[in-house]
């Protein structure tokens, strides 16, 4: 039987009296021990949970890697003042591989590094709940004891600090401990580095944008020797947040054709197919000239500069339980896959995830269907699509903004004052036109052509009616143009 005396520092249990301070010291966890309970171990760049993470193939992405490492080291004169770098590109462009490679390079050069690799399929890495505590832990194990002590004190003062807002966590667990460390006399020749990869895979778009905002808040006074690399798809909330930031403090790298993606992919494929020819258990049955040059070029073209297609092909073809030559023929459409065999399962999962996250998907598929199925004599001009589908000016841009990692709305190459739609992945078209892969997102070409023809007939009828009611109206190429719609109607019928 125990007795408790308010205001006393002692309490009594049968057999003895104990001091409360002694009891707490023996049983309560310290701040750093509590912090460790809220760490997403799988988010580290060198986590055992991320066994064999994607990283850049040897001698690929050389220019991008050099640009980022030079920025971190202060060697980029045009971006010397930038404290945050945004690496962005289409889905499957290889952003995570680049981020992983950068992390390994910095780790090898003994930079003080903290990283968080988001993943939508992981309960600990699919949200931002453990982001700050995970970054703080990694800094604490690499920085002098003053940082850890200040971090522990923050947890001891507020044991529930991990439940506070991201603002409060960044302030209490990163910024203030770093300032305390600097005030103690700590200095470094190199910047500390934080890498946040796959920000678009965080479950809440508003939180994605908030993380961008808080990254700039963290460095607002330029009083901390810290640089932050953020890699993501250019989703609307993330892009909008970056677009409001000062140009001088932000660097951007777009994964586009400026970085010779096709050449890197060709080099990757050549190396991987050589590995298959020399290491596969059935290598003696592989012809010397395999794969043929035209097959290689087709794979490069289908990759559209996105490494995910090439890496998916290699994984499928290299299977130890199958003939590589047969599997490549399946990929190229020469042979049919066996029942239940999908060479593009990983790629299809990515496309499906993106499409499921958009609103008005039926209308979006009508727009994409026009781009995929229209006759070669027609363009992908946004105004023509809006005209055909009776949309208001600007509607296509609004609808496509959440598909920016698959589809680009960009300046028309023949007229800088007009916009056109470009599908970034050639393989995305294959996915949409194959019902076994796209399922409820399938573009039925017969139904779509019929639908577009019906829309054209409606426009033609409306135009003829307008002409008959306006005897003085000249028969000119107004929009919608009767000849364009008539041609389209005939060609798609």
From TrEMBL:
Gene source species: Psilocybe cyanescens
Keyword Repeat: yes
Protein's recorded name: Nephrocystin 3-like N-terminal domain-containing protein
Every Nephrocystin 3-like N-terminal domain range: 77-233
InterPro entries xrefs: NPHP3-like_N, P-loop_NTPase
Top-level taxon of the source organism: Eukaryota
Keywords: Repeat
Pfam families linked: NPHP3_N (PF24883)
């Amino acid at each position: 039987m125990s007795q408790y005396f308010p205001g006393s520092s002692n309490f009594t249990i049968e057999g003895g009296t104990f001091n409360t301070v002694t009891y707490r010291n023996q049983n309560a966890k310290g701040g750093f021990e509590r912090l460790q309970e809220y760490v997403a171990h799988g988010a580290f760049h060198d986590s055992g949970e991320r066994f064999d993470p994607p990283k850049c193939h040897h001698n690929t992405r050389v220019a991008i890697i050099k640009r980022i490492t030079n920025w971190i080291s202060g060697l980029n004169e045009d971006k010397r003042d930038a404290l945050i770098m945004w690496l962005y590109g289409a889905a499957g462009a290889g952003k995570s591989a680049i981020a992983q490679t950068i992390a390994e390079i910095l780790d090898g050069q003994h930079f003080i590094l903290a990283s968080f690799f988001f993943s939508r399929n992981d309960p600990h890495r699919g949200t931002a709940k453990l982001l700050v505590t995970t970054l703080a832990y990694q800094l604490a194990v690499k920085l002098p004891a003053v940082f850890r002590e200040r971090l522990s004190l923050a947890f001891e003062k507020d044991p529930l600090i991990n439940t506070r807002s991201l603002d409060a966590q960044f302030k209490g667990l990163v910024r203030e401990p770093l300032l305390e460390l600097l005030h103690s006399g700590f200095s470094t020749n190199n910047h500390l580095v934080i890498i946040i990869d796959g920000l678009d895979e965080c479950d809440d778009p508003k939180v994605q944008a908030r993380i961008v905002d808080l990254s700039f808040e963290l460095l607002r006074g330029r009083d901390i020797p810290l640089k932050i690399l953020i890699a993501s798809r250019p989703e609307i909330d993330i892009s909008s947040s970056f677009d409001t930031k000062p140009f001088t403090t932000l660097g951007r790298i777009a994964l586009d054709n400026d970085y010779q993606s096709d050449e890197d992919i060709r080099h990757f494929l050549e190396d991987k197919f050589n590995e298959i020819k020399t290491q596969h258990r059935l290598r003696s049955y592989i012809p010397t000239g395999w794969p043929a040059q035209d097959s290689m070029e087709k794979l490069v073209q289908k990759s559209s500069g996105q490494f995910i297609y090439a890496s998916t092909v290699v994984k499928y073809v290299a299977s130890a339980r199958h003939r590589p030559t047969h599997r490549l023929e399946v990929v190229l459409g020469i042979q049919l896959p066996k029942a239940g065999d999908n060479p593009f399962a990983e790629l299809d999962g990515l496309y499906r995830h993106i499409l499921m996250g958009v609103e008005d998907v039926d209308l979006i598929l009508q727009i994409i269907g026009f781009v995929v199925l229209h006759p070669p004599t027609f363009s992908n001009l946004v105004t023509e699509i809006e005209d055909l589908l009776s949309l208001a000016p600007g509607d296509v841009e609004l609808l496509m903004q959440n598909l920016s990692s698959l589809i680009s709305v960009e300046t028309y190459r023949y007229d800088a004052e007009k916009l056109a739609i470009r599908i970034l992945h050639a393989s995305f078209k294959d996915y949409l036109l194959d019902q076994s892969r796209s399922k409820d997102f399938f573009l039925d070409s017969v139904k779509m052509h019929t639908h577009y023809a019906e829309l054209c007939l409606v426009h033609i009828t409306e135009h003829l009616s307008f002409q008959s009611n306006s005897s003085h109206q000249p028969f000119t190429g107004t929009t919608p143009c009767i000849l364009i719609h008539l041609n389209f109607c005939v060609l798609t019928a």
